[in-house]
């Protein structure tokens, strides 16, 4: 066990629940730490169900293309915890991370606090100690009572597409979930809202009205779409003709448009050339990304291997849409290798694919008892009319997929599974 893992294990034992949404505990710890949240660079706070990470990655690439230093906080990590924290553009070192975590542990003095709360406090402490031009701060879950919602005066807020997820904490209805996400809106701070369902948008706009905020809304105030192999963005300031995002998938058009809208609406020092440059270079691992390396060895010549961490019903929808677009350009048999958690709507996820997959191989998520059993997930897939069979792990599933000529093989269903795949492949995020 690494020193970081040992520290995190101790922190995990400070609260009986992994998630307990409230702000009392983190505000108490931040007060004892000297209120680092008041000593941050301008903050852009990002909530939503899907697309948060891709939107943050695109904004970071834009700002860095313009020469700015950017702090970033995202979650969860894929392989190493330090992926969550970027200090002025670089992943935090193990030494600085460990020192910050242990400092927060000492200051906390054994008081009850959740793992995400105390690690978020450590991130804010680090951000306050290192100069930067901006902080891109991603919500962990929900918004209103999320541990990141301690910034009184952000430069701006973003809400990416809202859908049903984490129902045990946020409820089963999109409108209620959207109200919780809208809890990050702040009086006096501009807000950019991605395209939403009617119920979700109505809930967000109602919360915005209470604060006197007029949100900048996709489909009303700005839009982005693909045209002739280009990304066309338009808002009240004019039209941009841009390269398509390097990130694969039809949904990345919308994510890029939200990031561009935020840059323009928040008055960020980003030129049109910076936007074009960032779209060509932006990277966000395990979001419909090709896999090259050791894991592709069992596959047959002519096959493709992809990895996607989308894990809820809406994530299945955007993956299925993107794969249909790929198939229209380059038809191939589709094979899914899927593992997911037991609290996820696996049936809703799989229904988006219809009868397109020629095979579904289900796998466990190593080391996690909260995941669907591969056999149970295979039974579910078969009940939906899919040809499915359980496998003992990713390598066994890849060996089975190798038998399907010219297949497009997609490992999907969980960011935790995606992290396991990247570790197996020897290609952790950097």
UniProtKB/TrEMBL annotation:
GO terms for cellular component: cytoplasm. InterPro entries: Folylpolyglutamate_synth, Folylpolyglutamate_synth_CS, Mur-like_cat_sf, Mur_ligase_C_dom_sf, Mur_ligase_cen. Its EC number is 6.3.2.17. Residues 46-263 form the Mur ligase central domain. It is an enzyme of class 6 (ligase). Keywords: ATP-binding, Ligase, Magnesium, Metal-binding, Nucleotide-binding. Pfam families: Mur_ligase_M. It catalyses: (6S)-5,6,7,8-tetrahydrofolyl-(gamma-L-Glu)(n) + L-glutamate + ATP = (6S)-5,6,7,8-tetrahydrofolyl-(gamma-L-Glu)(n+1) + ADP + phosphate + H(+). Belongs to the folylpolyglutamate synthase family. Its cofactor is Mg(2+). GO terms for molecular function: ATP binding; dihydrofolate synthase activity; metal ion binding; tetrahydrofolylpolyglutamate synthase activity. This is tetrahydrofolate synthase. GO terms for biological process: tetrahydrofolate biosynthetic process.
């Amino acid at each position: 066990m690494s020193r970081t893992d040992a520290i995190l294990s101790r922190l995990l034992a400070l609260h009986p629940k992994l998630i307990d949404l409230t702000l009392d505990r983190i505000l108490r710890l931040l007060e004892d730490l000297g209120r680092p949240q008041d000593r941050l660079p301008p903050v852009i706070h990002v909530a939503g169900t899907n697309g948060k990470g891709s939107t943050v990655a695109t904004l970071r690439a834009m700002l860095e293309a313009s020469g700015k230093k950017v702090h970033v906080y995202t979650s969860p990590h894929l392989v190493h915890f330090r992926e969550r924290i970027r200090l002025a553009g670089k992943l935090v070192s193990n030494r600085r991370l460990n020192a910050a975590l242990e400092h927060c542990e000492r200051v906390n003095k054994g008081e009850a606090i959740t793992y995400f709360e105390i690690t978020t406090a450590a991130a804010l402490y680090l951000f306050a100690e290192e100069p930067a031009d901006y902080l891109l701060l991603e919500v962990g879950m929900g918004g209103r009572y999320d541990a990141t919602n301690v910034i009184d005066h952000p430069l701006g807020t973003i809400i990416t597409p809202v859908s049903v997820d984490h129902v045990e904490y946020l409820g089963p209805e999109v409108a209620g979930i959207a109200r919780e996400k809208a809890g990050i809106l702040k009086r006096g701070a501009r807000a950019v809202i991605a395209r939403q369902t009617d119920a979700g948008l109505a809930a967000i706009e109602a919360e915005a009205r209470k604060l006197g905020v007029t949100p900048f809304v996709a489909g009303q105030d700005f839009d982005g779409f693909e045209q002739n192999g280009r990304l066309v963005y338009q808002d009240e300031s004019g039209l941009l003709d841009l390269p398509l995002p390097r990130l694969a998938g039809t949904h990345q058009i919308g994510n890029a448009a939200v990031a561009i809208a935020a840059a323009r609406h928040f008055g960020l020092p980003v030129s049109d050339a910076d936007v074009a440059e960032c779209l060509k270079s932006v990277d966000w691992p395990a979001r419909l990304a090709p896999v090259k390396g050791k894991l592709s060895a069992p596959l047959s010549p002519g096959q493709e291997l992809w990895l996607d961490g989308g894990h809820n019903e809406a994530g299945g929808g955007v993956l299925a849409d993107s794969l249909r677009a790929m198939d229209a350009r380059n038809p191939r048999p589709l094979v899914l290798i899927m593992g997911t958690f037991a609290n996820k709507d696996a049936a809703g996820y799989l229904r988006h694919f219809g009868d397109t997959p020629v095979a579904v191989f289900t796998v466990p998520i190593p080391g996690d008892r909260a995941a669907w059993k591969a056999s149970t997930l295979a039974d579910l897939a078969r009940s939906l009319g899919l040809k499915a069979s359980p496998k003992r792990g990713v390598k066994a599933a890849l060996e089975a997929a190798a038998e399907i000529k010219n297949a497009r093989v997609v490992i999907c269903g969980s960011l935790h599974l995606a992290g396991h795949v990247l570790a197996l492949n020897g290609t952790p995020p950097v």
